[in-house]
Amino acid sequence: MDQGENEVLTRTDRGTPCGELMRRYWQPAALSEELPAGGPPLPVRLLGEDLVMFRDGRGRPGLLGVHCSHRGADLSYGRLEDGGLRCIYHGWLYDIEGRCLDQPGEPGGGEHRDAIRQPAYPCREKSGVIFAYMGPGEPPLLPHYDWLTVPDDHVAPAKLFSECNYLQGNEGNIDIFHNNYLHFMKRDLSAMSETEVQGIRDRFGDVERVSGRGPSPGTERTHAQLLDLGIRICKVRRMDAERSYIRAATFVLPSMTVIPGGSINWHVPIDDTHHWKYIITFSREKALDKETATMRASEWAPAPDYRPLVGKANRYGQDRSLMQDQVYCGIDYPNPIQDLCVVEGAGRVQDRTNEHLVESDVPVVASRKVLMKAIRDVQEGIDPPHVIRDPEANRFPQIVATFGVIPSATPWQDHLEQLVSEGQGWQTLATR
Hints:
- By secondary structure, this protein is α+β, with helices and mostly antiparallel strands.
- The protein has two domains: 26-139, Rieske [2Fe-2S] iron-sulphur domain (Rieske Iron-sulfur Protein); 148-431, Naphthalene 1,2-dioxygenase Alpha Subunit, Chain A, domain 1.
- Strands 12, 13, 14, 15, 16, 17, 18 and 19 form an eight-stranded antiparallel β-sheet that branches.
- It has eight helices and 19 strands.
- The mean pLDDT is 94.
């Protein structure tokens, strides 16, 4: 990748190629818990824009430009009353659509107030997440992902502040090859059932020692398959002549990945050097305990700022004594913290001109090409892939997130297509 391509994929301010792409999709803007009923306005920075989110008198979320159209005061300090958000500087009142309802210092409440439009973006709230559409024209449909079609108490969303460009976090999900290194730790097999032991051995190979070459060196291959909404990713380890172990994920435009046996990770730019990682787990069958489902995120990235308690300043809590025979990376924290170490470690904006890519990086390369093609679509004035406007097309059975043992003679693509045909492609940890 040359520097020009790197800049195209990483800059997301308004008017930049990738910024205009990102604005064609609904993006998570906040967790519902950040905006409780009767709570204060919430300052939000998203895609390089400073905004304020609030609930009106009917409980509906609104997202406005943070600076009042009158004299530029910060509306996040405003009063919530009279059906909208009122600036504390001169009392101008705005509704969730940015209309100025009142200018109390002017005769008749402002003769020309109807000519004022505060920048405003549509919001939708579902499954504990508030989404915003920041693009032009009529918003597309909010995608009916599986986790957005179940009751709200079946979904457990969390978020993590990340001090790096969104693309680094996004590509960390697509690179599923790293799991047998960064996230590997020695298991206490004596505390497991026979079924659990077999599952661990199937997944990793040698799980009883921590080696610098990983638990199954030289036995894994990664693959990518183009979809109309992104790419399907699969890692295959040949166990013996009869069996292979697979882990499959799906990258969904513009920056969401459904992880095998884990979570849905959605990376949303704050600006070019910071982003939010939204971590979502769901169950089709039952209500979830949020803390358990999100690996007790409140203990390592607590509200209200969702910043990790371990980070670069304290070296992500790495204990190098654990590296010898316990934890491969020495970071005995949940996977999101281990991920944060390597994606932030690449710099605020990774310089991809210095990469040396190899065979296992095929899914990462494919994802970049898909993003570049989507950017070109926007530049040509057409909707990029996975912008949904037809209600009949608002379903996504092709999304796969699964793992397990398959016959070595069965191509992984055929196995995944069989799961899709049975409606069993998307299987997160909460449903297994």
